[in-house]
Amino acid sequence: MKYTSCLLSLLLSLPFGLLSQVNPDPEFSDHVFDENIHTVMLRQKGIPDSYPILILNAGDRLELSFDEMGTEQRNFEYTLIHCDYNWYPSNISENQYIDGLISDYIINISPSFNTYVKYTNYEVAIPSEQMVPKLAGNYIIKVYESGSPEEVVLTRRFYVVAQQVGIRGNVHQPLDPKYRKRMQEVDFEVDLKNLSVSNPYGDIRIVVQQNGRPDSELRNLQPKFVRDNLLIYDYEFENLFEAGNEFRAVDLRSVRFKGTGVEQLTLDSLFVARLHVDEDRSYFSFSSRADLNGKRIIDAKEASNPAVEGDYVLTYFRFKNPYPEEEPDMYLYGELSGWKTQPPYKLHYDSASGYYFSEQLLKQGYYNYIYVLARPSAPPGTPGRLPAIDQTYFEGSYWETENDYTIYVYHRSLSLNTDELAGILRLNTGM
Q1: What is the pLDDT of residues 215-232, one digit of tens each?
Q2: Torsion 59-64-65-71 (CA) sign
Q3: Strand 271-279 to strand 312-320: parallel, antiparallel, or no bridges (unpaired)?
């Protein structure tokens, strides 16, 4: 009994984040439940390569867009769900975090125009005139069949930040020789002088994310030092990230001329692009190149409105594996795959050509991607997290790689019993 009481006391004294994990329910992640839905994008309005972040009451907007294949038009509704730090629904009522309607129709619906592949484009702005998030924190936008909230079509995460704390940080090369050549260290400080916090170890939660990738997140990091109102996160390996490599690119913005990465472009019943054969880069020397850090931009050079005039291109990715006798658990990876190792993005071996291949129907645009190896755990010597993928197996990892890092600082609200997003800082290794 004494042992049980001591254990319970220890567990109750630990920060909340250490006692729970990120919600595994697909409805609380970036997920598409309808295979007829393509090209789901959530961006700051007018900024095609931005992250889905809103400053509370600042007047900026996000724009959600997606396509449904075919000519049929459906009626969709959407709602917003406030979530805690771990993406579980907050135990608060909708009127505590939404000003206006708690659900609304998507009314911006447009059929494709002059395209070989027919589709319908849907768009909705957040906030809208009818629905405004009024509380900082993590949010899910859920799109569903009109009148049937249980028939979920897609979900997307976004963030609303109140900027109540000051954050300073930098990204640099690790000092430890074991990690110096392949990893990047993210050090930062959080200034709480404008926020009332009684227990910084329990009431403040941190997420550090590389390139907007949910699978890359560093969570549950505690401050190494607390000095007055300053929380200092300056470690030797707890805050290290695999640097990876610059992303590969394919340019499908034109259907008249071959863009970057395209070897052959043809037209049958639809446009078909066969890409140059990719190779293992893990043995190459590092080469700097501009990239989108895994994102994509939808654009069409021959169209005035790419959202509805951009065509879909059947795109063949090919990879020359130096170990043809083995068939690795290999995936095409990036924002185009939803940052997940999903079955449609797995590469398969073609004995006739000797290449691994993946066939993707992509809307015209500029795409970043890499090849990753799915594995159950991190390789020996990897500090911190145990990611489900190995991004270095085919790509290598070099500390010089340009990456984005976003630091999210959450504050546990005692009155609401949920987490509010009190600050965000974006860093770039090139800054």
Answers
A1: 889 998 999 999 989 999
A2: negative
A3: parallel
